[in-house]
């Protein structure tokens, strides 16, 4: 399954989370979204967003002022634990 990349560099709170939420709504359970942001507040924002929505914050890192978050779309509520990791690829979505 492809990993979608969402570039929200240069946007400030709350736009990175809002754009990520919109992208995740169009994805299937278990798919991954990689978000690239420059807003320092996005670290706390994405932790809270994933905790509150049930999506999994798989990883995050910071390099050269760019924060990268990997979020796995939550599974279908009727079948918990149904999400799986699949082959890597990338689609680019610009914010």
TrEMBL record:
* InterPro entries from the UniProt entry: TusA-like, TusA-like_sf
Q: Which family does it belong to?
A: Belongs to the sulfur carrier protein TusA family.
Q: Which organism is it from?
A: Granulibacter bethesdensis
Source domain of life is Bacteria
Residue ranges annotated for the UPF0033 domain, each copy included: 6-30
Q: Which Pfam families match?
A: TusA (PF01206)
Q: Where is this region: Disordered?
A: 72-95
Which SUPFAM superfamilies does this UniProt record tie to the protein?
A: SirA-like
Q: Which PANTHER family match?
A: SULFUR CARRIER PROTEIN YEDF-RELATED
UniProt-listed CDD domains:
SirA_YedF_YeeD
Record protein name field: Transcriptional regulatory protein
């Amino acid at each position: 399954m492809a990993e979608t990349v969402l570039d929200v560099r240069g946007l400030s709170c709350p736009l990175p989370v809002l754009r990520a939420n919109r992208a995740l709504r169009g994805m299937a359970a278990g798919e991954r979204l990689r978000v690239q942001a420059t807003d320092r507040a996005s670290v706390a924002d994405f932790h809270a967003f994933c905790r509150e929505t049930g999506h999994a914050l798989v990883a995050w890192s910071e390099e050269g002022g760019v924060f990268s978050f990997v979020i796995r779309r939550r599974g279908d509520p009727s079948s918990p634990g149904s999400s799986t990791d699949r082959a890597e690829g990338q689609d680019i979505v610009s914010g």
